[in-house]
Amino acid sequence: MAGISSGGIGSGLDVATIVQQLVSADRAPTDARHDRTSRQLQAQISAIGTLRSSFSSLRTAVAALSSKDAAQARKVTLPADNNFTATATAGSAVGQFQVEVRALASSQRVASGAFAKADTVVGTGTLTLTAGETTLSVEIGAGKNTLAGIRDAINATAGGKTVTASIVTGDDGAHLVLNAVDSGSAGALKIAASGGDGGLSALAYQPPAATQMTVAAPATDAIVKVDGIERTSSSNTLTDLIGGVSLTLTKAEPGTTRELKIASDPSAQRSSAKSFVNAYNGAMGAIGTTTAYNTSTQVAAALNGDAMVRGASRELRDIVSDNITDLKSLGITINKDGTLKLDEATFDAAVAKDPGVAARLFGSGDGTMAFRLDAALDRLLDDGGMIDSRSDGLENRTRSLQKQRDALDFRMTQVEARYRAQFTALDAMVTKLQNTSNFLSQQLSSL
């Protein structure tokens, strides 16, 4: 603490040192108490932060454990020589299906008759292109009336959707080729020409009427049979053929069936269970570390004896213990120190045999272990919950301690000023007495 420095005026008293030592002695017990309290508060704040982090990790693991994606994950098995691919969403149908790919869907291509070259003038007017339920009107003016100009006008209007146009040059000349973007009969093309000089009629295509345009590739639908039930589709990807399964056809092989197998996939749930076990053990470890008492050193951890932590630990352990039978059947056992251990092989076998065991433990319904753990962790971690309340209390005590330190500084400033005034006066008095003594000595010596 800074103060006004003053040596003795003439007595030889070191007033500054004396005052400093007196003030230090006065405040030392209070400073020591404040420092001790500050260390305790900081240790408790750090410990609460450790618990908050470990409980948050546990809550995240519990949420993943009870998610539908983990509980109802599916595994797709295809033959090595498959002619289709498949994916299955969580909760999709489980079983074996015989799949026969009879035909693939393809998009239609039509080609014009031959023109001398790409910059040959065709004509002006309006081309109306229809693919399925989509219709485009393409205006062909004098500046776009060549074969290349018409191609560019179609592509600019379509923007890569509905239809694309290109020019293919063969031995007989240049051909305008139109390709439907969408596959299947639903995307079949029709082209009407109107207005202008009539030259665009060479590009008209209105089947079954005769036309100068020819079909380079027909629009075909995909045909697939699943367990003998036939389905026609304009796309090679079918998302509603088998519930929750997306099937993409890659090769047509009429008369040949291949097996699609969809089964429960324990790996996702096993991974979630493993994460839960690790997070639970982490939380128990954090509780143990922050509440421990070392009998050798007789030193207690920051939250030793804390009622909130003790209650949280008891509740989490009780929830797990209440479900010990189902946990054991899934290969999850409780060690002597209260931590959990997962046997992955036992878990996989148990889930394959009886998925209901995992559902009873990990489901989100009332009364399940996951539900109860989540509720307990919410009470701890939610805004205004027990962790927040405890943390706020510690922060308030820290602020209060700082106010006490500030008050001590102010009080010690006053004490220092009082000591300094007292010793300065004493110094002056001693100096005066010394001066008087010196004077008397001189007078006596002259007699």
UniProtKB/TrEMBL annotation:
The keyword Mitochondrion does not apply. GO terms for biological process: bacterial-type flagellum-dependent cell motility; cell adhesion. Its main location: secreted. Residues 219-435 form the Flagellar hook-associated protein 2 C-terminal domain. It is found in: Secreted; Bacterial flagellum. One of its GO terms (cellular component) is extracellular region. Keywords: Bacterial flagellum, Cell projection, Cilium, Coiled coil, Flagellum, Secreted. Residues 11-108 form the Flagellar hook-associated protein 2 N-terminal domain. It comes from the Bacteria. It holds the Pfam family FliD_C. Homopentamer. Belongs to the FliD family. Required for morphogenesis and for the elongation of the flagellar filament by facilitating polymerization of the flagellin monomers at the tip of growing filament. Forms a capping structure, which prevents flagellin subunits (transported through the central channel of the flagellum) from leaking out without polymerization at the distal end. This is Flagellar hook-associated protein 2. The lineage of its organism: Bacteria, Pseudomonadati, Pseudomonadota, Gammaproteobacteria, Lysobacterales. The gene is fliD.
